[in-house]
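Pasting as-is:
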Amino acid sequence: MGRLSIKIKDVELVTVVQLEGYINSNAVISLTQTLHSLIKGEKKFFVLEVSRLHFLCNDAVIALQQLKNQIQNEGGNLSLACFRPEIQETELVDIQKAFSTFPDLHSAISNYKPQKKQPYNMKLPFSIEGSVGLGDAIKRMTSAVGIKPCGGC
């Protein structure tokens, strides 16, 4: 059987690990050592791009599940891009249920883009023109319900 080639690149917040060749029992050690070193380097979000992978042994599936659990426990995630079921040795584990899988690398990376938070708007029992700071809002609200502001803030 052939060898395993591992290439790593950062794309925005995501570390893309491109795997090419064969992951047999011997290659699992190299792969897990590489991923462990990335995790220790404060990386959190990983996509394994496997379009050029020709074989994935059962040991590799188990090791990847353990790594995924470790990454998730530290607030990150591990997903697969371009997975083809025919590369898996046997279907002891349904990879597509155990991992988030994406049809291509772009959609996998897009999954990790932070969502822009919408500002929180609240309705107040009095009218305000424009934006008002929290201190002014509290002063106006307490005045509206009959509490005299202390004037010290």
